Amino acid sequence: MTRHSPIEIHELTTRDKFAAAVQLQREIWGFEDIELLPLRLFVVASKIGGQVLGAFDASKMVAFCLAIPGLKPGGKFYLHSHMLGVLPDYRNTGLGRKLKLKQREAAMARGIDLIEWTFDPLEIKNAFFNIERLGAVGRRYMHNQYGTTSSHLHSGLPTDRLVAEWWIRSPRVDAVCNRRPFDRPQTEGRISVPSEIRHLRQREPDRAREIQTSVGEQFAQHFQAGLAVIGFQKQENAGIYLLGPWESK
User: Fold this and answer.
1) Residues facing residue 63 across a β-bridge
2) So where are the chain's domains?
3) Helix/strand/coil for 224
4) Cα–Cα distance for residue pair 10/6, rounded to 1 Å
């Protein structure tokens, strides 16, 4: 792919840009119209303390990120990063990471400490990105978070999700975002996920469901023991979640 201008990332504030983000959902995930996040949600998010970012190749929007405000027990304000999408031709270029770093920068300027989002723990590429490239940790597993969707990427499986906690001011995240080494907690548990899960979703859905159930049970066991996801290793045929102690930030 030839690009004629550098990718620029900035906040979205107008209805035409929000509409472009809605259209990107169709192109990226193949959602049916009923499952698209509507334009009005982007409008509301931008006005109530959320965050809507877009990445542009010249005038063409090629990626976006939507976050909405959240409130923890005790009154702690945070951002829930609900959706980030990149057009296929722009993946594997570092654009997703650039969007997240911009999100972190803008959130820190507002005094925010925590950004959360969910991801499919069976997708090892996303797991590596979230944990190793961004420094997120995980302590919660959500069963069938969004119900069954029309996306071809989900293939009819329950939408089980791992919650990523991104403590954006922590030494861990600061080191990862600036590509510096840092001290990791001791690994006390491991969970293996096969690399061919997308093939299994399409060709052997029953086997994929068995793997999903097993992975969920293992996460529940480790989380109940007080461990957190603190690292991720990619191997030839699998991805390995590393679990160990983690105390908030």
Assistant:
1) 55, 86
2) 7-185
3) helix
4) 13
- Structure tokens that stand for 94 in this block: 């570092």
Mean pLDDT of all residues belonging to the chain: 93
pLDDT in tens, 113-171: 999 999 999 999 999 999 999 999 999 999 999 887 655 555 678 999 999 999 999 99
Domain covering 7-185, topology: Aminopeptidase (3.40.630)
Q: Which residue has the tokens 């499919």?
A: 120
Q: pLDDT tens digit string along 64-98?
A: 999 999 999 999 999 999 999 999 999 999 999 99
- The residue type found at 218 is Q
φ, ψ for residue 233 (rounded to 5)?
Answer: -120, 135
Contact (CB, 8 A) for 161 and 121: yes
Q: CA-CA distance, 31 to 238, in Å (whole number)?
A: 28
Q: 80: which 2 tokens?
A: 């829930």
70 and 80 in contact (C-beta within 8 Å)?
Answer: yes
Q: Return the residue matching tokens 């060709």.
A: 203
Confirm whether pTM is higher than 0.70: yes
- Whether the CA torsion 178, 179, 180, 186 is positive or negative: it is positive
Minimal CA–CA distance to 85: which of 44, 36, 34, 25? 25
